[in-house]
Amino acid sequence: MRPLALALTGLLLVTASAYGREVRLRPAASLKAASARSSGGPIVRLRWRDRARGETRWEVWRAARRRGVLKANSTHWTDRHVRVGSRYAYRVRPCRRSRCAKSVTVRLKVRGAAGAHQPVAGGGGGGSGTGAPGADPFAGSPTIGGCPVFPKGNPWNSDISGYPVDRAQSDAYIGSLGSITLWPDFGSGRYGDYGIPYGVVAQDQPLVPISFHVSPEIAAESDPGPYPIPPTARVEGGTDHHVLILRQGDCRLFELYDADKQPDNSWSVYSAATFDLRSNALRHDGYTSADAAGLPMLPGLARVDEVRSGAIDHALRIAIPNTQNAYIHPATHAASSSTSPALPPMGLRVRLKPGYDISGLHGQARVIARALQVYGALVADNSGGSKVFISGTPDSGWDDDDLGQLKSIPASALEAVVTGPVHPG
User: Fold this and answer.
1) CB 110 within 8 Å of CB 33
2) Predicted confidence band of residue 157 (pLDDT cuts 50, 70, 90)
3) C-alpha distances in angstroms, 254 versus 316, 349, 402?
4) For position 17, what pLDDT does the model report?
5) Do residues 261 and 364 share a domain?
6) pTM for the full model?
7) Does residue 118 carry a pLDDT above 60?
8) 125 domain residue, yes or no
9) Pick from 36, 261, 323, 358: CA 20 to 30 A from residue 406's CA?
10) Are 176 and 102 in a shared domain?
11) 179 and 105 together in one domain
């Protein structure tokens, strides 16, 4: 991909008095925007020289909204939520506890170069990867509540039946799973509250505050509130307590982890993230979400309405016992201390082997197994258990006995395919 050109004037230098001594912050002269990957669309990468004294964090603002909180001694930050042709203003400032030095501002316009991928209509920074100019990037995409769930060219919606097997690592990755089997981690409710629920709200749903009951680092990786979470939002059972809400109109997805509703209808959470379902934009590298891998959860859930239609046209979300401290895009976060290259990284794409015979399966189980052969699954979490857990919604329409057929499929029937480089966590 050729880099994107942008307008940038001058070398900025700001000197401010703070904390009783001089604080100087000077960005590098060459602020650049370039394609993050062939289908990732434009990015803006900020770089500066660290001339602060005693800072404990750096804050990056776009317009009037804080976009990132970085550790001391940081010198760069990447914005993946940009569009070709749009103008942006960024402010960067060093802070110490509750006090901050004067910020430096840079303004730029992201210009498209020949051959550069353009963001999809209404998107926030991702290319559709669909090919012909003027083609509907959402044609064939799954839909929920009248919203597309990412463009058709998005990794979640990509047919991987023809992708090459990762010859170097597939055997090790799958071998690390041992003799365990697949397991549907959802059902009708007959045997308990299993599955990850979601809700759909109107665009005028009132916003409520979000607070974080964890370390500042995790909060800094999360998207701040307020969120359109209704007081009646269903919380996932078990221990994870996820809340997933899709807002109609702007088709934005809001996801919470370890969510606890407060008496004033606000929510206290461990982490939270938002996604534009009309964009391919990823979260920043190293950022978590409501999921351990930094991925959205809703796009990977098996749903009854899809199964009744006869096909699931997207990848599924899976949780496996253990992963390594690494990730593959579209994942952006690792959740392991292990450096073993034999363990799967977050975001690893696996599929049910084409030669695995699913003709003996019937009903709902067969539709899900076929989706695993065509679209595969993305590793999104560490389960700590002894199964390959497939995620889906809780729904009285599930036939638990039918789904039980999936439990006969061994993990050895899976294979890892090549989708991109492994990034260290």
Assistant:
1) yes
2) very high
3) 19, 24, 31
4) 26
5) yes
6) 0.72
7) no
8) no
9) 323
10) no
11) no
